[in-house]
Structures are given as C-alpha cells and as structure tokens.
Design a protein that fits this description.
The chain is of the alpha+beta class. A seven-stranded mixed β-sheet has the order 12-24-23-22-13-20-21, with helices on both faces. α23 links the parallel β22 and β23. α3 runs antiparallel to α7 and α5 packs across α6. The longest helix has 35 residues. The radius of gyration is 34 Å and the shape is elongated.
Length: 740
C-alpha cells in the first residue's frame, strides 16, 4: 500500500469534498481517501497497481482539478491578482446597481439609460454589463455544471442554477416587453446576477485568506530550512542549492548561519541554537560525531558536517508531513457534518422547486415564484457548514504545531478533553532518562574540577555524567595522568601532583579511609542516589549523588491533572522502592512497578475495559504497544526519529506541561466547532423560511441579491469565530515567556 497527498482545485464547500471523497473510495485500487477542504488536498491510500496518472484521472472524472503533489506554498501573487479582479467587478457592480435602481431611489439618472424612458437601450446595456460576470464566475459555473453531470450537486450547483435561472427569466421578460407581448417591464434580476457573483467571490476571497492563515504555522516550519548550503572546493567556500546536496557530502557551517540539512559533524566545534525543535533555549555544543538538524542556528564556531538526511527525509519535512497528515484525518463530529452536507444540497434544490411550484399553484405572479426559487438556492449555500469543523481543526493543529505539539490524527483533538486517566512511564518520561549528577556535597573548594577531570579519562557509563556536568558548568578540565582502574570499586590518577581516587563505598573499605560524613551520605541515599566518593590524598573531599533526575515540570503537571479530576498512574519496570520514591516526590498515589514492557499494554486494556479514556505518555520505544492501544498515545522525545512512533501525539519540546495545553486546546476546539455548527445551522433555519416567503406577512422578504449577501455573512461569521482560536497561540507564547 502507498500513500500520497495531492492538491485539488475546484472545491468550494463540504458537498464538494464529500462528493470527491465518496467517488474516490469507490474506485478500484483505492483503499481510502480523505479530503481536506481547508488545505484543498486529498490524502489517498492506494494499491501498488495504481500510478499517479490514474489518481489524477479519478480526480478529473469526479469533476475537480488535480494540481500535483501537495506543497505548502505562498500564493501572494495569486491573492493579489484575485483582489485586483474583485475590486474591478465590485466597482462595476455598483454601476450596474445604480443603473438598475437609481431611478427608483430618486437618484439623478442619464435619460437614455432610464428603464422607463428607454427600455430597449437599458436592457442592452444591462446584458452587456452582466455578461462579463459569467466570465468572471466561470469557475463556479463550470464546477456547478460538472457536479450536476456527476450527480453530486454542491454549492456551485446552487449558484449556477440560480444565476442561469435569473438571467434567463430576466432576458425573456425584457424581450417579451420589447416585442410588445407584455405591457409592463417587470421581473428583471440583471443587477442581482452581478451582486450574487460578487458576494460569492468576496466570501471565497475571505475564505481563501482565512485558510491561508491556517497554513502559516506549517509554512514557518518549511521556511526554517535554508534554501542554500555551503561546500568547500579548492580551499574556497562555494554556495549550492539544497537540491544539489547529496548524501554524505561535506558541508560547511559558519557562525550566524542555519544548518542546511540533517547531518553529523565531521570536524570542528560550535554552539548551536536548537530551540525551534527542542524548546531548549540554552545553546548546545556540537563537535565531531554529534548530530545536527536542519534549521538550527550556529551561534559561534565553524564546523564541517556530512549530509545524512535531505529533502523529504529530513526532520523538518517529516514534521510537516505529520501535521498535514493529521489535518487529513477526520474527527467524528466532522463526519457528522459531512453526512448532513451530503444530503443538504439536494434537499435545498427540492425546497426551491417546491417553493417555485407552490407560488404558481396559488396563482402568484411568475416573478414572485422566480424570486423565491433563486433566493432559496443562493441563501442556503452550505459554505458555512463546510467550514465549521475543518477550519477549526486545521487552525488548532497549526497552533499546536507552533507550540511543539505534533498531533497525528484529528480525532485526538476530539478526545483529549475527555481523558480521565493519564498513565506515565517513569524512566525517560517523568525522569530525564539518563544518569545525571543530582546532588553534590563539596567539602573542599573546587574539588568537582578534580572529579570531572579524572572521570573524563574513564570509559565507565557513569563517567558521562561528569563530562556532561563539566560542559554544563563550563568547568575547565585539568590534566590527569597515571590513570588506573580499580576493579569493582573505581579508578585513580594523579592531578596537579595530588593522588585522586573515585569510586563506590568499597573503595573506602579497601583503603581504610575514614568517612566522617555519614549524615550527608544518608541524605543522598534517602533521595535514591548512587554515591560516588572523591578522595584526594587519602581524604574524602566530595560526596556526589548520581540519579535519574525528575523533569522540572513533572510535579506541577501532575498536580494540575489531578486538580482537573484526572487520575494519574505511574507505570515502570523499576523495583517498588525506586518507583515509590519518585512517586512520593511527585504526589502520585497509584504506582505499578516491576511491569515489563510487554505487560504495559495489559494495564491499558484493563482500564479501557472499565470504560476509562486513557492517555499513555511514554518514550515511544518500549512503550509502543501501550501507546498504540490507549485512547491517546503521547510520546515525549527529542524529535529526531519521529516517524517510528506508535503515538498519536509527539511533544517535541519534552515539556510535560504541553499535556495540559493539549487538553485545554482540545476543549476549546470542540466548543468552537459546536459554535460554528450552531451558527451554520441557525442561519439556514432562519433564512430559508424568509427566502421562501413564509414571513412576508411580517415584512421579512429576500431577493437574490440580499440572499447572496446573507450567505457571505454566514461564512464570515464562522470564519471569524474559528480564527478566535488563535488566542491560544498568544496564551501559549505568553506562558513560555513567563516561564523563561
């Protein structure tokens, strides 16, 4: 099975996306198709027997335009061109309105264009002025006609039928009057045709700009990666495009520049800002053998690095793919709206026809019947209904992506706020997942310099704690000589003429070294630390506690979750004593220890069978089965291998507080979607009876022009409400600034 995301042109409402989705899923070789109306693309799972050309043919036959593989692009010139033509035709529509209604309103009129004094020339001028609108709105009419042919009527179908009916009726009335068949010149809707098309175009332009805004977060990720890379040839630095870079090619990184592609440092050293990926504001030192990620900034230094992942294989490309893929999945509430939209357009056409026939049956003038027919078609266009759910989903997922939270499926946003149980893996999730120097009792000043200098010569796993500590504290290492390993106890060496030994408690017994620091030793042991003793010239100078350090945000996030009424469970393979120690510090009452990775999924299944909605938070490797089984699986990691995760969400910044942000964003998104659906349905329930004329006795009537204005306002209402979700971005950014 293969998957591809294709750009699609010609979609204007949920009826369009539904018809395309339904058509594709019926085609042989296509396993699944999910259309994204907001991003104007379709994600297709298909068998190897199909080619891209086959998929394009399917899209064409469905009445839409295949536009190649989906890419996040900035269509600024396209929008400027659209705005230019919109201004021209909107201005022309004012002229048409003046000619058509100026005399009625008592405005000064040109005599030869008067409908009353020169109806022949009036009609000719109006027809000439209206015909360009058919060219301007040709994409609407073309799609409308295609969808009639393919029996999948949509918003364009409603507009097409309404406009053609209005023009035909107006033209026949005018012609009959000119031929003296009719005595009165009534029932002309030429100006309404122009205004309907202009209002539809205005609505689509606003819609297009709103959709473009939802792509900003994704585009920002794309633009992080530079367009050029530097190589060294014959001693000179030369610039090449990213497309020219090859795997294992040596590239040069200079101070102030961004890393061009994912790679590994071959030579040199520098400090790099990777905050866009990890959220860590502190610069990271990179030297030979270290990985570098495209888009990170070199703050100082110069390196040569080998390209290891380019193009679609890079970390940034994978992040973008995941975000786009997430927006192509549909939440349950979205599918409900889709099903309604599928029957909505045929129902509206039926209502319009019944209204038309009803007016004639009760012997109303044909002009009244035509007014009701066209008004119903125009006012009930399902633009707002089609935008209600996908616009809110895409905006929210863009917000979360900017905040370093990658949501793989839209259903996550629908479920997150309903979570009642959160399971945390301990090692690598609640803790940092690697040994660090947690505590240090230094009885003689500057003795940590001796400790780090000696351990830097060791190959023991604990030695890395001291190396990292020295880097973090910017300790200048001293020269250590005569290095000897003391089996099972530690190591020894000479630094600045002093005999230095480091090791566990056995080294004290072996060398009969007195330990006057029992109180400090007990403090370290009670905190669950492994103790390393530093001995200089036969005396203890340091007691160093080594431990897997608890994440800074762990305690506060657990308290916040519990305050929300969410049960927190810690799941770990560690022994009960070590697990209880960490759980006590974090305020977790429910602890399951000595659990094998293969047994974790059983815990999740047990909770699910009891009716709980479970969020599993793990490191995405040993926890993969449990992550996949839970209601929502969350992986906390650095983001360098995100493709292999079984989780639904990836916390790119390793910040557990993002869990609360995700839950809150989920709740606000669902509230926003329900508000959007309310306004979309309320609008139609209110306007359709008025368009039919049921409330004319109360002075409430509509004509096609006002109906098109109302349709635009309904879409604008939904768009503005959905864009209110961007307040989440400001809240998150303000939170981060306060934290920093």
């Amino acid at each position: 099975m293969k998957n591809i995301t294709l750009q699609v042109g010609g979609m204007s409402c949920s009826a369009c996306s539904n018809s395309l989705e339904k058509y594709l899923q019926k085609q042989p070789g296509i396993i699944n198709a999910s259309v994204n109306l907001v991003l104007a693309c379709v994600s297709i799972d298909y068998e190897d027997t199909l080619k891209l050309s086959d998929l394009n043919d399917f899209i064409t036959k469905a009445g839409f335009i295949p536009e190649g593989i989906y890419q996040i692009q900035n269509d600024k010139k396209y929008y400027q061109n659209e705005l230019k033509w919109l201004i021209i035709f909107a201005s022309l529509s004012v002229v048409i309105m003046y000619i058509a209604m100026g005399e009625m309103l008592g405005l000064p009129m040109i005599h030869f264009l008067s409908k009353m004094h020169n109806p022949l020339l009036f009609g000719i001028v109006m027809i000439i002025l209206v015909i360009p609108y058919f060219i301007y709105g040709w994409s609407i009419f073309k799609n409308g006609i295609k969808n009639i042919i393919y029996l999948s009527p949509n918003m364009d179908t409603l507009i097409t039928i309404g406009v053609i009916a209005s023009f035909t009726y107006s033209f026949i009335n005018w012609l009959l009057f000119i031929l003296n068949v009719k005595q009165e010149l009534m029932g002309l809707y030429f100006e309404s045709i122009a205004m309907v098309i202009v209002f539809v175009k205005i609505g689509r332009f606003i819609d297009m700009k709103a959709k473009e805004k939802t792509k900003d977060a994704i585009r920002e990720l794309v633009q992080i990666t530079p367009q050029f890379a530097k190589i060294k040839e014959n001693g000179e630095i030369k610039e090449i495009t990213i497309d020219e870079v090859e795997i294992d090619q040596a590239l040069v990184g200079l101070t102030g520049e961004r890393i061009a592609v994912d790679g590994v440092v071959e030579s040199g050293s520098c400090h790099i800002d990777e905050a866009f990926l990890t959220g860590e504001s502190k610069p990271v030192k990179k030297q030979a053998g270290d990985k570098v990620v495209a888009g990170s900034i070199i703050l100082n230094g110069e390196i040569t690095y080998l390209a290891k992942a380019i193009g679609k294989d890079s970390t940034i490309s994978e992040i973008v793919r995941l975000v786009v893929s997430a927006t192509n999945t549909k939440a349950k509430i979205s599918r409900i709206a889709d099903r309604i939209s599928l029957f909505f357009v045929p129902t509206i056409i039926a209502i319009a026809i019944i209204s038309f026939c009803g007016y004639l049956m009760f012997k109303y003038p044909l002009s009244n019947a035509m007014n009701a027919f066209v008004s119903v078609l125009v006012v009930a266009c399902p633009c707002a209904l089609g935008l209600a759910t996908p616009l809110a989903i895409v905006i929210s997922e863009g917000i979360l992506a900017r905040g370093g939270i990658l949501v793989k499926k839209s259903t996550t946003l629908e479920q997150a706020y309903k979570i009642d149980t959160v399971i945390f893996d301990k090692t690598g999730t609640l803790t940092c997942g690697k040994l660090q120097i947690a505590s240090n009792f230094e009885f003689v000043p500057n003795m940590m310099t001796y400790a780090c200098s000696l351990e830097a010569k060791s190959t023991h796993p604990i030695a890395s704690c001291f190396v990292n500590y020295a880097k973090e504290k910017q300790i200048t290492l001293m020269e250590a000589t005569d290095i000897n390993t003391i089996p099972g106890m530690g190591l020894s060496g000479v630094i600045d003429g002093h005999q230095v030994m480091m090791g566990n408690a056995k080294i004290l017994t072996h060398y009969n070294i007195d330990n006057p620091y029992q109180e400090q030793e007990n403090i370290l042991l009670e905190a669950g630390n492994t103790i390393v003793y530093t001995i200089v010239d036969g005396e203890i100078t340091n007691l160093i506690g080594i431990n897997d350090v608890i994440r800074d945000s762990a305690y506060s996030i657990i308290q916040t979750l519990q305050n929300k009424g969410i049960e927190v469970i810690m799941l770990t393979g560690d022994n009960n004593q070590a697990a209880t120690l960490v759980a006590t510090k974090l305020g977790i009452k429910n602890v399951k220890s000595n659990v094998l990775p293969s047994e974790k999924i059983g815990v999740v299944e047990g909770l699910l069978s009891e009716g709980h909605r479970v969020m599993m938070v793990g490191d995405g490797i040993n926890d993969a089965p449990a992550l996949a089984k839970s209601t929502i699986g969350v992986s906390i990691k650095s983001g360098t291998d995100i493709a292999s995760d079984a989780s639904d969400v990836i916390l790119m910044k390793n910040d557990l507080s993002d869990l609360v942000y995700l839950i809150d964003a989920s709740l606000k998104t669902m509230i926003n979607i329900k508000e959007n659906l309310f306004w979309a349905f309320f609008y139609n329930l209110l306007m359709i009876p008025i368009a039919i004329g049921l409330l004319s006795g109360y002075g409430l009537t509509l004509n096609p022009m006002l109906a098109s204005l109302g349709m635009t306002c309904s879409s604008l209402c939904v768009i503005v409400n959905a864009l209110c979700l961007f307040k989440l971005i400001r809240k998150k950014e303000n939170k981060d600034e306060t934290t920093n």
